[in-house]
Design goal:
Length: 320
């Protein structure tokens, strides 16, 4: 590994021809002020416009620019993952191509990193120029995600963040296919901190995240870090069984203490409640097993060691 490179900037790009040149220039300006070595890794996620040719021509003039190009559109999270896989810097920064994330913030992240943090994520205090629908759904999603998982995944943060080599190496060991990178970063642990910023408008072009991709991302986020949705079946089942039983008891009491006749469908309905409740609960039980099978098949390591003293350790464990 070439540890001479200090910073790797990973930029996933999908049909970004209208902003690409400006993004490159802004990033270059900012990174030049560090007076340290860096590489700009563009990950072309199967763009169908001139993005690829543009990156190639930028690269022809600037050898700090690197390029990974996918055979088709694999999605933002996979593009980020590829960028991290190929990055060789001591710190890796992931940033969107549309300048919604101000490149100048990278300097603040670097400062925090130099203070000793392993992960510095950018937390949005405001989102400008986005539709109320996007803001509302994003807000809702982050709240549901944090309610459904025990893991502390910071709210209102995107993928704009700095990861140091340690964290990057650990992320590379996580084999899962449906990746929700922000969650995985939280899962990895180590010293994490935030820098705050106001999210700008997209400089030009339109969002490459239509509703369909947003839903996929949210489902990946929630299902990778919790199986509470499965438990809902158990709870719903329990509620339905108890209402069915209450219904039956009321019918019984009416039968004993009241002279009026009870229509036969009442009994059928009450039994219907109890039975469907039992079925739902059983589905929840099966769900619990599936949840555990899911845990096993994800193949995540059980734990990550941050320091290790006095033991013969593997290469990836930092020695004191
Ligand atoms: N992107 C990508 N593949 C996709 C969708 C988006 O690489 O399938 C990139 C896109 O070029 C941008 C970043 O991911 O650099 C964030 O996308 P976008 O700005 O469209 O998302 P939004 O800010 O609207 O959530
Ligand atoms: Mg954007």
């Amino acid at each position: 590994m070439n540890m001479d490179i200090r910073y790797s900037i990973v930029i996933p790009v999908y049909n970004e021809e209208v902003v690409l040149c400006q993004t490159y220039q802004r990033l270059k300006q900012v990174m030049d002020t560090t007076r340290e070595s860096y590489e700009l890794i563009f990950v072309n996620d199967g763009s169908s416009d001139h993005t690829l040719e543009m990156i190639k021509s930028i690269r022809a003039q600037d050898e700090d620019v690197k390029l990974i190009s996918f055979s088709r559109n694999f999605g933002h999270q996979i593009a980020i993952t590829a960028g991290m896989d190929y990055a060789s810097g001591a710190a890796v920064v992931v940033i969107d191509a549309d300048l919604q994330d101000p490149p100048e913030l990278i300097l603040k992240m670097i400062a925090k990193w130099k203070e000793g943090y392993n992960v510095v994520y950018a937390k949005r205090t405001k989102r400008k120029g986005e539709t109320w629908f996007k803001k509302l759904t994003a807000r809702l999603f982050y709240r549901i995600l944090s309610a459904s998982t025990d893991l502390n995944i910071p709210t209102d943060t995107g993928d704009f963040r700095l990861l140091d080599r340690r964290v990057c190496e650990e992320l590379k060991r996580l084999p899962e296919k449906n990746r929700y990178v922000r969650g995985l970063v939280s899962w990895v642990g180590f010293k994490q901190t935030a820098v705050e910023y106001e999210r700008d408008e997209r400089l030009a072009g339109e969002s490459k995240y239509p509703l369909k991709k947003m839903i996929k991302l949210s489902l990946d986020g929630i299902t990778s870090f919790s199986y509470k949705p499965i438990k809902l079946a158990t709870y719903a089942g329990a509620i339905i069984i108890s209402s069915g039983i209450t219904y039956l008891v009321v019918l019984l009491l009416l039968k004993i203490f009241s002279k009026s006749a009870i229509a036969g469908w009442n009994l059928v309905l009450a039994m219907q409640f109890v039975l469907s409740g039992v079925l739902l609960t059983m589905m929840g039980v099966i769900g619990e097993y599936i949840g555990r099978i899911y845990d096993e098949t994800r193949n995540r390591p059980l734990y990550i060691v941050s320091e290790c003293y006095g033991l013969k350790n593997e290469e990836r464990i930092v020695k004191d």
